[in-house]
Amino acid sequence: MSQIKSFEDLRKIKEDFGKRIQFREKSFDPSKVVQIKVGFGTSGIASGAKEVMTFLRDELEKRNIEAVVTQTGDMGYSYAEPTIEVKLPGQEPIVFGKVNVRKADEIIERYIKNGELIDGIIPVNYHTI
Amino acid sequence: MHLLVCGGTTCRSSESESIRNALEESLERNGLENEVKVVSTGCFGFCDKGPIVKVIPGNTFYIHVKPEDAEEIVKEHVLNGRRVERLLYLEPEKELLATGSKEIGFQKKQIRIALRNCGFIDPENIDEYIARDGYVALCRCLTEYTPQQVIEMIKKSGLRGRGGGGFPTGLKWEITAKVKSDQKYVICNADEGDPGAFMDRSILEGDPHSVIEAMAINGYCTGASKGLVYIRAEYPMAIKRLRIAINQAKEYGLLGKNIFNSGFDFDIELRYGAGAFVCGEETALIHSMEGKRGEPTFKPPFPSEHGFLGKPSNVNNVETYANIPVIINKGPEWFASIGTEKSKGTKVFALAGKINNVGLIEVPMGTTLRDVIFKIGGGIRGGKGFKAVQTGGPSGGCLTTRHLDTPIDYDNLLAAGSMMGSGGMIVMDEDDCMVSIAKFYLGFTVDESCGKCSPCRIGNKRLYEILDKITKGEGTTEDLAKLKNLSEVIKDTSLCGLGQTSPNPVLSTLDNFWDEYVEHVIDKKCRASSCKGLMKYVIDPEACTGCTACARACPVNAISGERKGPHTINQEICIKCGTCMEKCKFNAVLLQ
């Protein structure tokens, strides 16, 4: 990894980042890739986020869906852990709560494959900067 | 098309289930069940307007929807594409019909500044942080501003310490900067000890780089080349993520020698705590880091002058640091535009207790308790009545219905007999006995007192004993006077913040729930039915059928009586376990 020594270096990483995320494993078509974030804070993990993340990674690959599954911090919805955020290409991200393996399967089959919304959506109720 | 029905607990209790069914039936009648799906969602965060139905696409919001409105929504909106005006949300300030959910003001009570990246970026990937303008603030500070200019910006922003005390952050930095020394330290207080609080843990787990960046900025301002994070060992995930983050920052040269070619060197190390509450106090924290007993010492001298290893040290809390990069990037004026006159910016709270939406929230200073509890928090669990909210942890106090419309900021909470604290908010309902709550917090401080000064070590123990006596029904009116008196003495004479604030739960409950204390002492009654010593189980002879189920289940054989005849409980033997009440099929066991 080269050292960052200027504002330009930071900007370059920022610009590259958008591109690199799609090329992380195989050469994805950016317009098709599904991005999933799993809330991986202590409360998420305690409620089973690890199992959900493994399931999503394995099943998306098995079912031939181009997706990037990453971990993220606590989304703040402790009452609805584990939580995951799914972003379909060209769409607003959607957060699902109380996701177990069965729910994750439903999310893949119904939301990711057909764009059909399913129960358990957590509406975004905050601004961020 | 999708119809989203709020399935939050409050909306569900106000019929959102039947609305969902009515919508589905109506769609079926109109042959639309395949094109339009009804989906139930989590809480939208405005339960006072519920039940809510949102139509996608178009983001149309309907409020106060009743099952009988379903047909109209389906026929008008879904079939004819005309909005049902009478159910649309009317925004009070603008007097405009709001349609897009994103523009609805009341929906967005929360602004995430400290939590901006939490639950958004991968905390183990520094590039994601940089992609969100991470380390830009550090770069700008080192290359564009003098340390004094940065301190001025922090001062101008009005940021106050988020650990609880509320000391102006810019001023603290300035004091440390002015002290001359060959070595100074930047310390991050991540010893989050309040029961029910997990703000700092979540920030460190979700966005560790923001804290690292801010500590480096602090180092630049104060002239420190070394940063230390004091974190409790019981936060393994936060420790792991911090370690990864520090290593990544080092690899990129964002920590280490000559950062951004500015000649500024800065490095961060971790120090682990064993999870003692008193180590959140800065002098105790520093002693613990030095490998000594975690005991506080008298201030002054403040750590800014005489801190870690006797060198000037700037101690700030995790959440305080998380705000710093934003202030540099967006400007102090922007930050100061949020919040109240004397408390700027936002505050993260951990909502816990008898509330529907337990979780982390971040609201602008000045938001009312009512908005936090009844809108964002989704109200009280099980539709019960709100009784009190405890803020500020064991050092804070209880606020009641009369404080619901008080804007939350440092000064208002102090005036109301509580404090901001680090941001734990524990909500209590009508089933909670306030004397027992005060006893619980005292139990915590008795455990956590370091024992160095006698008012705290002995005084709190005595306070606890008096409270215990009252909850057992053995209290006298003299005890109430003694409680108050002793509390004042402990407050005035204790050495550190722990002892000076430990009687707060007692004082604030005495203030706000005097009636309840009097009931316990004089009437020997606990209105919340939670003090076992004040209750007795009795059998209603009229309702008792003599089935003997209770007598057979009683673990201490306190119940006697003939078969098919009324039974009685011997109060001398009864241990008040409640088993008889659970076993009785005829509701003949009563709690008095």
Give the spatial strand order of the biggest sheet of chain A.
2-1-3-4-5
Number of helices of chain B: 23
Please trace the helix and strand order of chain A, writing H or E for each element.
HEHHEEEHEE
Which fold name fills CATH's third level, the topology of chain A?
A: Glutaredoxin
Question: Major sheet of chain A: size, sense and barrel closure?
Answer: 5 strands, mixed
Largest sheet of chain B: 5 strands, mixed
Number of strands of chain A: 6
Task: Summarize the structure in words.
The complex is a heterodimer of chains A (129) and B (592). Chain A has 129 residues and is an alpha+beta fold. Chain A has one domain: Glutaredoxin (3-Layer(aba) Sandwich), CATH 3.40.30. Chain A contains four helices and six strands. Chain A has a five-stranded mixed beta sheet with strand order 2-1-3-4-5, covered by helices on one side. In chain A, a hairpin with a 6-residue loop joins strand 3 and strand 4 (94-96). In chain A, helix 3 (49-62) crosses helix 4 (101-114). The longest helix of chain A is centred in the first third of the chain and has 14 residues, at 7-20. Chain B is built from 23 helices and 21 strands. In chain B, strand 5 and strand 6 (96-97) form a beta hairpin. Classes of the chains: A alpha+beta (129), B alpha/beta (592). At the A-B interface, helix 1, helix 2, strand 2, strand 5 and strand 6 of A face strand 1, strand 2, strand 7, helix 4 and helix 5 of B. Strand 6 of chain A pairs parallel with strand 7 (110-112) of chain B, so a sheet runs across the interface.
